[in-house]
Design brief:
Elements: E1 3-6, E2 10-22, H1 26-37, E3 43-46, H2 54-57, E4 64-66, H3 78-86, H4 93-101, H5 103-113, E5 138-140, H6 145-159, E6 163-165, E7 168-176, E8 179-187, E9 198-208, H7 230-235, E10 240-241, E11 246-252, E12 257-258, H8 262-265, E13 269-273, E14 279-281, H9 290-300, H10 316-327, E15 331-335, H11 341-346, H12 353-361, H13 369-386, E16 396-405, E17 408-409, E18 422-424, H14 440-450
Parallel strand pairs: 2-3, 2-9, 3-6, 9-18
Antiparallel strand pairs: 1-2, 4-5, 7-8, 8-9, 10-17, 11-12, 11-16, 13-14, 13-15, 15-16
Helix pairs in contact: 1-6, 1-14, 3-4
């Protein structure tokens, strides 16, 4: 392998690539797979840890993928989907059009790779409504949708023989005259070598799919294995867009996991425990009545992100949890072992029709929250069980957590940054918008990395 001398101190090994992908989530792996599919010679993928990152280690009750509707019950179009995405504020119209136009191609590729998206008996990918969505474009392969995507894409990349540099951490982007031409990296299993583990990668093009800046907040639902590398791109001079736009929502602390969807719709009891150990059911204190509190908790299932427009409605649940934890110094738990007191006293009768109808259709209009969760979405309960948390026996500690950066590096419609030959895909790209429909980020990872 050719070597280059640096300041006459030690030799740093070099590798040359036609295209170098940085990151091994579902954006990076999809980029590497497309490079191989399109015949780009000498493509390679670099990753700090193949098994780390958000795509492999994050999810929710039924992690959503947002796509163009492919079912006969919904008359959809590329223009309609583009209008929805652009209407989310902070999304360029041309970006929205590309994400809508390429949605079906990217989704069908994943289905063909074996991601188990559900169909009806006729083969239609029937959808449901998600947050910030007035259509039914959402689908899900369950709590681990992005993990399925990552696993299937990794298999495809390995089958195509793409070179993978695992345990290799990107350190600095190498640029000259407004163009990226390489990367300085650390081989983490070679730190004791004469080169101290450094390696230079020279590449005609670099695709950064490094995820979001996950280490910014203490209260975070990002998996602990996700760190992000946005700073390296900013340091190199790549301009950013919408960096101030973060998405927050309720999440469990141990393990870090979104408590959206079914976790809310089964109507758990919200309790606060003070530093001296006193417990109280606090949510009704923030609403006009216990039934309004219960209704808004139910709505929190499909209005999961904190939203200023819902401040007098479902997002008051977030405000209440934040006030209890950050102002009053309490710990907050969702309790699936017992019903909220108003349900115990009066049954389901006083609940608004929206909640009663949903629970009835889900065959979950009975029992305790854990009973309803097992009836409605057993995999959501099974996830916590696999992490050593038994929701039927112990309450789940939660907080309002940073969940997603909706900004990032500014890119054009081919996801190229202002630095020539540097492309940015996935959460590191600033394309997601403020009020993005739930699951549209997964679509953006696939479309952006394909472009």
């Amino acid at each position: 392998m050719p070597e280059a001398q640096t300041e006459n101190r030690f030799l740093i090994p070099q590798s040359r690539c036609g295209a170098l992908v940085v990151g091994s989530g579902c954006a990076g792996l999809n980029a590497a797979d497309w490079l191989a599919e399109l015949g780009v010679e000498n493509a390679a993928l670099l990753t700090e840890d193949m098994n780390s990152g958000t795509s492999r280690n994050a999810g929710s009750d039924k992690q959503t993928y947002y796509k163009l509707s492919l079912a006969s019950s919904q008359a959809d179009s590329v223009a309609e989907m583009a209008a929805t995405l652009a209407g989310g504020i902070g999304v360029n119209g041309d970006t929205a059009l590309v994400e809508a136009a390429c949605s079906a191609q990217c989704f069908i590729k994943l289905a063909n790779l074996g991601v188990p998206f559900p169909t009806n008996r006729y083969g239609e990918y029937v959808g449901y409504r998600t947050d910030h969505d007035h259509w039914r474009r959402a689908t899900s392969a369950g709590p681990l949708t992005s993990r399925y995507m990552t696993d299937r894409l990794e298999r495809a990349v390995r089958e195509k023989g793409v070179a993978i540099f695992d345990k290799t951490m990107a350190v600095r982007l190498l640029c000259e005259a407004g163009r990226a031409y390489g990367l300085l990296a650390l081989e983490l299993d070679r730190l004791d070598t004469p080169s101290l583990g450094f390696r230079i990668f020279l590449a005609d093009n670099i695709i950064a799919a490094v995820g979001g800046p996950a280490s910014v907040y203490a209260a975070s639902v990002y998996p602990e294995s996700q760190s992000g590398m946005t700073g390296m791109l900013l340091e190199a001079g790549a301009p950013a867009a919408n960096l101030q736009e973060w998405q927050y929502g309720l999440a469990s602390l141990r393990p870090r996991w979104n408590v959206s969807g079914s976790y809310q719709q089964v109507l758990p009891r919200y309790i606060a425990i003070s530093p001296d150990g006193n417990e109280r059911e606090f949510l009704p204190e923030y609403f006009q009545s216990p039934w309004e509190a219960l209704h808004m908790a139910f709505r929190k299932g499909y209005q999961w992100p904190f939203d200023m427009r819902e401040i007098a409605a479902s997002s008051m649940v977030d405000i209440a949890v934040h006030h209890e934890t950050q102002v009053m110094g309490n710990r907050v738990f969702m309790d699936f072992t017992r019903n909220p007191s108003c349900l115990d006293e009066s049954g389901f009768g006083p609940l608004p029709l929206e909640a009663v109808d949903y629970l009835e259709k889900s065959r979950a209009l009975f029992g305790r929250p854990i009973d309803r969760l097992m009836a409605m979405n057993e995999p959501a309960a099974e996830f916590y069980r696999s992490q050593g948390v038994e929701l039927g026996r112990e309450p789940l500690e939660v907080a309002v957590c940073a969940q997603h950066c909706n900004g990032g590096i500014a890119v054009d419609i081919d996801w190229q940054s202002a630095l020539k030959n540097l492309y940015v895909a996935g959460e590191a790209a600033g394309t997601f918008g403020v009020y993005r429909p739930g699951g549209s980020a997964l679509n953006a990872t696939q479309v952006g990395s394909m472009r």
